[in-house]
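Predict structure. Input: N-acetylmuramoyl-L-alanine amidase, 259 residues.
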Amino acid sequence: MSKKIYLSPSNQNGNTYATGGTNEMAQCDKIAAAAAKALKRCGFNVMVAKSGTLMQTRCPESDKFGADIHMPIHTNAFNGKYTGGTRVFCLNSNGRKAAEAVKSALGAISPGKDDSVSYKTDLYEINVPKALTVYVECEFHDTVTGSDWIRKNTVAIGEAICKGMCNYFDVKYKTDSAGSDSSKAGSDKAFRRYIVRITSSNGVNIRKGPGTNYDVNGAVPKGGAYTIVDEKSGAGAAKWGKLKSGAGWIALDYTEKIR
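Output follows.
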C-alpha cells in the first residue's frame, strides 16, 4: 500500500522575502505543489492543505487522511544577514531518521551550510498530528541570497523533499522526464555558442546533467566567464547550459550573457 504524506505549507503571508515582493506563504505553496507532483510520480498518496488554512484545521484533516508523514513546509528568517541552510524539526528520536533523510537531500542544494535536525516539543504541528511529523524549514528568506535561491528553486526544493521521502521509505526516486523530452525537438539544430559570466555571490554548482536531480561535479566562482555549447531545461532552473570544458552543466539563472 502506498505511503500517505500530508503537506502543510506555511500560511504566514506576513513574512516577507528580502527580494521579489513575495512572502513565505506564496513560496511554500509553490514548494508544496512541486513536492506533491514529485511524490505522486514516485507512487506516494499525497494530500496538500488548502492555502491559508489554519493548523487547527490541518491536523484533524491529516489524521482523517491517515497520513504516515505530516510535513509542514516553511522558510526561515533570523537577522537578515544569515543564510543558514536547511533546518528540519521532529518531536523525538522516532522521527530523526525521516528528518535526516529530508535534511540530507535538501541541504545538498540549499546555499546555507549550517543544515541541521533538531527536536522540538513546543510546535503545534509536531505535537498534535497522529502521524510522524517532519517539519521542514527551507533556507532563510530574509537574506538576498536565501530569498533569491528559494524563489528560483521551488521545483528543485520540492524534488529534494521527494528524494528525502523516497530514501526514508526505500522507494525508488523517479525523475521528471518532461523537461528533457521538451528539449529534444531542437536538439538536432546547430547551436550557437556564447559566453556567460557567473553573477551569484556563492558561485554556481556544476552538475553532471541539466538539473538539480543530477550529482554535483564541481563549482564555478562568481565573476568567471564560461562558454556555453548547449542548452536544456531541467529541475531547479529555468534553463541549464553545458560547459565547453565538458565538466557538466550550470544553472543559467545565475549568469549574464556577455557575448
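Residues 238 and 253 are 7 Å apart (CA to CA).
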